[in-house]
Design a protein that fits this description.
Layout lengths: L5 H45 L4 E2 L3 E8 L2 E12 L8 E12 L1 H6 L5 E15 L26 E17 L4 E13 L6 E17 L2 E18 L4 E11 L2 E11 L4 E13 H6 L6 H5 L1 E17 L8 E15 L6 E12 L7 E12 L2 E10 L5 E11 H8 L5 E15 L9 E14 L7 E12 L7 E12 L2 E10 L5 E11 H8 L9 E11 H6 L8 E11 L8 E11 L2 E11 L2 E10 L1 H5 L6 E13 L6 E5 L15 E5 L8 E14 L2 E13 L2 E11 L2 E13 L2 E14 H7 L1 H6 L7 E14 L11 E12 L4 H10 L8 E12 L2 E8 L6 E9 L4 E8 L7 E8 L4 E5 L14
Parallel strand pairs: 5-6, 30-33
Antiparallel strand pairs: 1-3, 2-3, 3-4, 4-5, 6-7, 7-8, 8-9, 9-10, 10-11, 11-12, 12-13, 13-14, 14-15, 15-16, 16-17, 17-18, 18-19, 19-20, 20-21, 21-22, 22-23, 23-24, 24-25, 25-26, 26-27, 27-28, 28-29, 29-30, 31-32, 33-34, 34-35, 35-36, 36-37, 37-38, 38-39, 39-40, 40-41, 41-42, 42-43, 43-44, ...
Length: 917
């Protein structure tokens, strides 16, 4: 038997193995160069066929060693733009994108198969605008009508790997912003199928979720194993099994997400059963983390969140949201307080159909806790928001100081025993006079409040209140407050109230003490007030609302004083706040008398004396009519400052970073709105008034406000030495619309001085730049004002007489043109004396009745029309010296700035403009 030479066999094996390895390595080096052009050409072809977004990269190389053992095409400095309307913005940028090549298809196939994708150091920037249009629709899908062929596609994936990347999702239609920073992902599955299962692992170093500019998750770590089914035909995702750790909280995430043409179809379910309360808080916003490290937390938590339905912003369709939260045997102890919160239990279910707050369905079956032997327990059912149906049970006997310390509410210091026993059931609807059936008491004994915004506390707070309603309506509601007292800055304040029948309020109120308004405000706010105001009260008010409405003032028992100093008063009707420097109100029955009431508004100052009537009805929910009569004196009034304003939200900019800043608002002007429930009259005098650049002197007149209208009667003022008398009626309809009637009579008005000193006159009568002389005006007009308090020209209707006493016209373009056309130099700068020009205004056209005058032997006769925006159609007969028997017919067309004069009577009719609101 022959002996086997094992040594020889071994060396032969090494030899052939070595040769094979060298050959393989050589092929691995050489093959990429052999097939590089074919691969690059196929990638470009596939990109052009399958993408409608612009794709760019600096260079490309093919290698077995970039992602060994895969043969990969690597594109360096890769960018892919989004789909319309984001075609000029980047969807994906990456330092490198590598495509794994199927070697068999490279050698034997007609097309190259790409079965792996690798992204590193990339930014995936997903955007959706307010209309629901997205930037990720860059893949051109096959049309359904295209017959299926058994040809191989150029893009079949089996794996996706993403390293050290960032994903930004900014959806302005849903106001959701998500950042995934330090994103690492590995997905495996047969991605070549139309429907495939993707097994993947994902890690995120920092996850941010922001909704309506409010952070919900910030800098959270995420680690998850995911199983996702993807349907590429309809771009649908089904999440079958997804175990995610958000910091230390384990949640199970299942559901589906379908991309629609103009929105999404969502069915999300997030569940966490038998979790620890501490682990739950690790997933909360970052402001709680500082608190968490000093707090002992225990308790078993069950959490279920669902979001189901279609979201289509353009059709106002939104999914249904529900949240179930249960906490058993909770325990909270901040910084080892001697009095921890124990037996903390919560059982809450919330549903919001179509994400509409008005469809809120809240069921807090139980919220309860103990601090030592004291307890707080409540149950609440609530349907709706504006007019909710409620079912409330509140029981409390709790020491607020001990509760505050156990929970670690460090920003505010509370003390006092809160004792409550309240039951309420029914509907709250102010408009229809409905109030839940209610019975109970709410007391606070020895209360104390101190915040970091002000060094001194509010102390000795004692509130003893009872509320009762057995009818479920406003007329059955009774509130007794006897007493409510507190001390602030050494000043005690007391309020007692017995209120019955809120449909026809039967009131008995006593108030006595001093309130330092600005300092109390600073207790609760960092901003504070800019004034150092206070209110001093000594009031006793008793009566029935209907007696005031019917004028049965003898039945009222209102008396006392209310003193105000340096108080800011804000109202929805005015854009600025009014500063009441000092004012003493004296109450007597239904009247509130003003004694030397001093106020300022912006640059304006006021001194009032008079009275208001029906004040309590005016302040009540019924908004009764406020009556009053005053004399008003002012040194200066700036009318422009009283214009209302409406907020206009700026268009959000499209960025790749979180839009954390609140949207800015620009202010646009609006008309002055007169409250409809004012019945007030003033006799006013003002030394100086400013309106739209007009400086009026020594204004005086009677002003009435009633039913949302304002009447100005026998009003007079002096403007550039001319006495002006006028009457006016005004009503603001909306913040952008007002109507007015106006009549004015001005005698001996100096044209030259007006042009020099009055901006409005220069703008409206620019042709009078070189004119001089005296005119008078008697005119009536009515129409509509826009939001800038300026007339809407087509709406103006009126007429009157312009009386010319002695006026020299110099440099007027119309007469210059007439002079040039007729070759008569003398008519260039005419002088007019004792001429009355009658005009009417309607549909944006001024009609000038025929008038004539004499000058330098000429006898011009003028009539015709012009538009308020400057168009001319003037007929003129230029009577020649000596007697004007022979005349030249002329027509002036064009505009006031560029008049065109021709001989003849035929002109261009000015088209009327009808008023269209």
């Amino acid at each position: 038997m022959a002996t086997v030479n094992y040594k020889s066999v071994f060396f032969k094996f090494l030899k052939y193995t070595g040769i094979s390895l060298v050959t393989i390595l050589a092929l691995m080096f050489i093959a990429p160069y052999l097939f590089a052009d074919k691969i690059k050409e196929q990638v470009k072809k596939t990109a052009n066929e399958k993408l409608n977004g612009e794709l760019n990269y600096t260079d490309a190389n093919v290698s077995f060693f970039s992602h060994f053992p895969s043969l990969t095409l690597t594109l360096n400095d890769f960018t892919l733009n989004g789909s319309a309307p984001f075609q000029n913005e980047k969807l994906v940028t990456a330092k490198e994108v590598a495509f794994g090549i199927n070697v068999t298809s490279l050698i034997f196939g007609e097309t190259i198969k790409i079965d792996e994708i690798f992204l590193s150091n990339s930014l995936i920037n997903v955007k959706v605008n307010q209309n629901g249009e997205a930037n990720y629709n860059v893949y051109i899908s096959e049309k359904e009508s295209t017959p299926k062929e058994k040809t191989e596609t150029g893009l079949k994936l089996e794996a996706i790997e993403i390293n050290n990347s960032k994903i930004v999702y900014d959806d302005q239609s849903t106001k959701v912003h998500i950042d995934a920073i330090g994103f690492n992902y590995l997905g495996n599955g047969d991605l070549s199928q139309a429907i495939f299962a993707l097994h993947s692992k994902a890690k995120i170093e920092k996850l941010n979720i922001i909704y309506e500019n409010e952070p919900y998750l910030m800098n959270k770590k995420v680690d998850g194993d995911l199983i996702t089914k993807i349907n590429t035909n309809s771009l649908s995702f089904v999440f079958e099994q997804n175990d995610l750790f958000i910091n230390k909280l384990l949640v199970d995430f299942t559901g589906k997400f379908d991309f629609l043409k103009d929105g999404y179809d969502i069915d999300f379910k997030i569940k966490s059963n038998k979790s620890n309360l501490y682990d739950l808080f690790t997933a909360f916003p970052p402001k709680y983390i500082t608190w968490l490290k000093d707090t002992e937390l225990k308790g078993n938590v069950d959490l279920l969140f669902t979001l189901k339905g279609k979201y289509i912003a353009s059709q106002n369709i939104a999914p249904d949201l529900s949240l179930d939260f249960k906490l058993k045997d909770g325990f909270v102890n901040y910084k080892k307080s001697a009095f921890p919160v124990s037996n903390l239990n919560m059982d809450i279910s919330t549903k919001v159909a179509s994400l509409n707050p008005e469809l809120l369905d809240l069921n807090a079956r139980n919220i309860s806790l103990n601090v030592e032997k004291n307890q707080l327990k409540t149950q609440l059912k609530m349907n709706g928001l504006t007019t909710p149906v409620v079912d409330l049970v509140l029981n409390s006997n709790i020491d607020l100081e001990k509760l505050n310390r156990a929970l670690g509410i460090s920003d505010i210091e509370l003390k006092g025993m809160l004792i409550a026993d309240v039951k309420a059931k029914g509907k709250y609807d102010q408009k229809h006079g409905l109030f839940p059936n209610t019975n109970g008491r709410l007391n606070l004994n020895n209360g104390f409040v101190k915040t970091p915004y002000y060094p001194n506390p509010i102390t000795n707070i004692n509130i003893n209140s009872k509320i009762n309603n057995q009818k479920g309506t406003y007329d059955g509601l009774s509130v007794v407050l006897k007493p409510a007292t507190f001390t602030f800055e050494g000043e005690p304040f007391l309020v007692e109230a017995d209120l019955k029948n809120f449909d026809d309020l039967n009131y008995d109120i006593k108030a006595k003490g001093t309130l330092n308004i600005s300092k109390i405000y600073k207790v609760f706010s960092q901003k504070g007030l800019d004034v150092d105001g206070f209110i001093k009260a000594d009031l006793a008010l008793k009566g029935i609302q209907s007696d005031a409405e019917k004028g049965n003032y003898s039945r009222l028992q209102n008396k006392g004083t209310l003193e105000l100093r340096n108080i800011n008063v804000a109202t929805e009707y005015l854009p600025k706040s009014m500063l009441i420097k000092e004012g003493i109100f004296r109450f007597n029955q239904d009247k509130m008398a003003f004694n030397t009431f001093l106020a300022s508004y912006g640059q304006s100052d006021f001194k009032l004396n008079g009275y208001l009537q029906n004040v309590f009805n005016f302040l009540s929910p019924k908004k009764g009519v406020l009556r009053g009569s005053f004399t008003l004196n002012s040194k200066y009034i700036n009318v422009d400052e009283f214009m209302s304003s409406t907020a206009k939200v700026s268009t959000p900019s499209t960025t790749t970073v979180p839009n954390n800043a609140p949207q800015t608002t620009a202010q646009e002007t609006g008309v002055i709105l007169i409250p409809s429930n004012f019945d007030l009259q003033f006799y006013a005098t003002a030394h100086k008034i400013n309106y739209q650049g007009l400086n009026l002197q020594d204004g005086k007149g009677a002003i009435k406000m009633k039913g949302g209208k304002m009447l100005m009667q026998n009003t007079g003022f002096n403007l550039i030495g001319c006495n002006v008398a006028m009457n006016a009626a005004y009503q603001g309809i909306t913040p952008k619309k007002a109507v007015f009637e106006y009549s004015i009579k001005a005698t001996d008005f100096d044209v030259k001085r007006a042009y020099k000193e009055v901006k409005m006159f220069r703008e409206m009568a620019s042709a009078a730049e070189n004119a001089e002389g005296i005119i008078s005006l008697d005119y009536k007009i009515k129409g509509r004002l826009n939001q800038d308090m300026m007339p809407v020209y087509p709406s103006l209707i009126g007429g009157g007489i312009l009386s010319i006493k002695d006026v020299k016209l110099k440099g007027m373009k119309m007469f210059n043109a007439v002079s040039k056309t007729t070759d008569h130099e003398a008519i260039k700068n005419p002088e007019l004396s004792k001429v009355d020009i009658k005009t009417t205004v309607k549909n944006n056209v001024i009609t000038i009745e025929r008038f004539k005058f004499k000058f330098a032997g000429f006898r011009p006769r003028i009539e015709g029309t012009s538009s308020l925006d400057g168009k001319l159609n003037i007929k003129m007969r230029l009577g020649l010296p000596p007697l004007g028997i022979i005349g030249i017919p002329l027509t002036v067309t064009g505009t006031k700035d560029n008049p065109k004069v021709k001989v003849g009577r035929k002109g261009d009719e000015i088209e009327e403009t009808q008023d269209v609101e």
